[in-house]
Amino acid sequence: MLPQEQIESIKRVSIVSYLLSLGVKPVKYSGVQLVYFSPKHTENTPSFFVHPDKNVFHDYTTDERGDIIRLVCYLTGCTFLKAVEILQTFEPISQTPTLSFSGQKAEPNDKGVKWIITDIKPLANKSLLEYVHERCISTTVAKKYLKEIHYKRGNKRMFAIAFENDKGGFEIRNPYWKSSTSPKCVTTLPVANSSIINLFEGFFDFLSSCCYFGITEPRNSTVILNSTSNINHVLDSLKNYKQANIYFDNDDAGRRAKQMVVDTGIKVFDGGKKYYPNHNDFNSFLTDGRY
Asked: What is the pLDDT of residues 33-50, one digit of tens each?
C-alpha cells in the first residue's frame, strides 16, 4: 500500500497540464472552471469541466468526476495502482504558465523558456476584471489589492492578475492557470493596535471575505499565506496577539496548518467552520451564491 503522503503528492499533479500532454485544450471558461470537449467521447457541446484551483474534473455527460488519479482511471480504463504509476512518471509540459489568457497553448519546446515581466500596472483590463467578477470579487476590492501583470514567454505575450507578497514576489492568476514569481512569501496587512490576527490561505479567500463582510480593509492585522507551506513564517508572531481568526481550506493541508496554529497556544476562531463548512474555501462558498 502506498503511503498516504505519496498519494496526496500525486493528486497535486495538474489536471490541466495532464490534459495538455494529451493534446486536449480548453475551449472556454465558465466562472472559475475551464470547459473542454470531453477527452473520453465525441460531443457537439463541450461538457467536460475542470476546476484548476481544486484540481478536480467533472464530465457532465457521464457524471464522472474526481481528482487526477480518477481521471487517469477514467480515460485509460486502468486500475488505481496503474494510474498512480502513470502519474509518478508524468512530466508536465512546463512548471510555469503555458497558456495565454485566450487559451493559446505554448509550443512543446517551450519547456525551460524564461518568462520576463514586461509591465506591472493598476488593474484595468476588461477581461481580467470579468474574471475577478466571475469569482464574485467587486471591482473596488480587486483594484485595491490586485495588479495587472504583463509578461513574455518566448515570443508570446501574456497577461494576468497579480497579488504582491512582502518580498516583492507575485501570486499570478487568470482563468487558465495559477503560478507565482520568486521570492515566494506571505502578504502582511498590519492594523495598528490590533489584538487579533486574521490568517488566510490564499488571496482570493481574503478578497472574498472583504466582499462578504462588506469592507475594503481588514479590521484586524491580516496575513495571507499564499500557500500553507508558508505557515512557519507567521507562527512566532502569533505571540503578539490574543486570538487568531483562521480562514483555511477545508482539506488536509488546511487542517494541518490549523493544528500548527492551535499548537502555539493562541485562542483560535475557525472561520472555515463558521462560514463555509460545506465548501472547500471562502471563494467557492462565495461563488456558490447560496449563503
From this structure: 888 988 888 777 889 999
Please indicate, yes or no, if residue 282 is contained in any of the structural domains.
yes
pLDDT < 50 positions in the chain: 93-111, 291
- 116 - beta bridge partners? 152
Residue 128 amino acid letter? L
> Do both 202 and 273 map to the same domain?
yes
Q: What is the pTM assigned to this prediction?
A: 0.65
Amino acid at 113: V
Q: What is the pLDDT of residues 234-291, one digit of tens each?
A: 999 999 999 999 999 998 889 999 999 999 999 999 999 999 999 999 999 998 875 4
* Residue after which a domain boundary falls, among 32, 55, 88: 88
Q: How many CB atoms lie within 10 A of CB 262?
A: 14
Domain with 36 in it = 4-88
| Number of Cβ atoms within 10 Å of the Cβ of 255 | 15
Number of domains in the chain: 3
Furthest-apart CA atoms within the chain: distance in Å: 61
